[in-house]
Amino acid sequence: MSLDLVAITAPQSPEAEAYRTLRTNLEFAVEDRPLRVVVFTSPGRVEDTAEVVANLAVTFAQTGHRVLAVEADLRRPRLHRLLGVSDAPGLTEMVQAREAPDAGFLYATEVSGLYVLPAGSPPVSPADVLDSKWLTQIWDLLREQFDMVLVNTPPVVAVADAAILAPRADGVILVLKAGATKRSHALQAKERLERVRAHILGTVLLDAPYDKAVQRY
pTM (2 decimals)? Predict the structure, then answer.
């Protein structure tokens, strides 16, 4: 299955270059320690965090990094389709079985060095799965196994999932969409992340108008 992502299908496009810029910014975002686990969330469903995570994961892997894309949106998972892997077993089964992440739950993609931990079967209570003590311990194991772990989560304003994971990550990126994300919703998302003392690294703005004054070199 081919990966229908701009980082692969249109590597010379302004969009792909924007992901490479984001990759560079994350590599130098923290001076005293490297980022290993980064959570991506948004104010609502209008912003496609899964597409951002998938493209950025490909971009990191293309430079030789060992990368894991984690689908922590257990309600409406999309990463497995974007990256061409099975949807289960995954995170839900791993937590329920208290297994290590490499015990049949990580899937290799067509991109060398890029792996996926899919959501798995839909749980009764996604928040309880993400708040489990076992999963808290898993993050340290993933930090040792991968150069970068990118975590896709549901909208932080709608459900508690992202707020549960954000404080346990090295940083959080808030995904917004030009012309669609309401300012009040963006501020509400920021406040919720600050309330749990998450380290907000910055924002990604989707569908920003192309500035013709900035031409491709």
Answer: 0.94
